[in-house]
Design goal:
The chain is built from ten helices and eight strands. By secondary structure, it is an alpha+beta fold. The longest helix has 24 residues, at 111-134. The N and C termini lie far apart (79 Å).
Length: 308
């Protein structure tokens, strides 16, 4: 198997992950945390993605959508950290909900409800920390697969890796989301791979420690770890050796030289400033316009203030 893997992924070295099945065994009934709050359960799991309950949110285990955005907010409050303005997760500027149920849900999220959810998420985190410490772990070795998309994130990481190798850099900086899903089973074979050893304090929860609900699909995919990135800008430093990619999945239009690598590094910045999209508040206001008098008064006041 090892030889086959090396042939399939020539740019990657064999990386031994920390398997949850090896830590907790087959029976997880004595380890799993039962989530009481339905919204938190949906944000972590599949939620609307399982095809039942249109008023449920799409959970993180279904994809990085509405439920994931809520989960990042709950996590930042529960663990007392947050991103600086304009450096929030990509989800906040790339996802636009078309579900009326999402708006209704936000309207129902008063401070008391949020406090209850954050308290339970903190309890899940503390449960995870306790269970990992009980088995003597100080860190976990895990893998993250990244697929190429239209935003160029994977492509940037490949160029960063190539440049680091050519220039002899042992450490690089990349932007990562607040919550990132890693695995220990090698279930996917994506275009770019991050293989990291993460301290257990950064593990929010893992699949073996989240209980399923009777009659519903598994809450999480097996072997999944959810890791917290507390960076205020989202930028983290990683060993260049932790980045791997399939050379047969990428090609250069021309040979990539040391000079190209130097130019890339000179222009590369891992920090991404994301302006928020502003929606005009004109719901049901068609036909209602300022009068000429209002415009004249507004212009006069602006003139007086500017010359005061």
């Amino acid at each position: 198997i090892a030889l086959s893997l090396q042939k399939a992924l020539p740019q990657m070295t064999i990386f031994k992950v920390t398997k949850q099945t090896g830590i907790f065994g087959i029976d997880d009934s004595n380890h799993a945390f039962h989530i009481n709050d339905d919204l938190l359960f949906d944000c972590i799991g599949i939620g609307r993605g399982n095809g039942h309950g249109p008023k449920r949110v799409s959970g993180f285990n279904f994809g990085k959508q509405f439920g994931y955005a809520l989960l990042t907010y709950f996590a930042s409050r529960a663990l007392n950290f947050r991103r600086v303005p304009f450096c929030e997760d990509r989800i906040y500027t790339s996802f636009f909900s078309r579900q009326d149920a999402d708006t209704e849900l936000l309207s129902s999220l008063n401070e008391n409800r949020i406090a209850v959810i954050c308290s339970e998420l903190l309890s899940l985190y503390q449960h995870t920390q306790t269970k990992l410490a009980q088995v003597g772990l100080g860190s976990v070795a895990i893998r993250r697969e990244i697929k190429s998309d239209e935003h160029g994130y994977a492509e940037t990481i490949v160029r960063l890796k190539k440049s680091a190798d050519l220039l002899g850099f042992t450490e690089v900086q990349i932007e990562m989301d607040t919550l990132n899903s890693f695995g220990d089973e090698g279930a996917y074979c994506a275009d770019v791979t991050l293989q990291l050893t993460v301290p257990i304090k950064d593990v929010l929860y893992c699949s073996r420690l989240v209980a399923n609900r009777p009659g519903q699909p598994d809450t999480m995919e097996s072997g999944e770890w959810v890791i917290v990135n507390r960076s205020s800008t989202g930028v983290v430093s990683l060993p260049a050796s932790s980045i791997g990619f399939r050379s047969d999945m990428w090609r250069e239009d021309r040979p990539f030289t040391t000079k190209d690598a130097e130019k890339f590094m000179a222009n590369y910045t891992p920090i991404v400033l994301r302006p928020s999209y502003r929606t005009l508040q004109r719901h049901g206001t068609h036909g209602l316009r300022p009068t000429v008098k209002q415009k004249l008064v507004r212009n006069a006041l602006a003139y007086l203030c500017g010359n005061a």
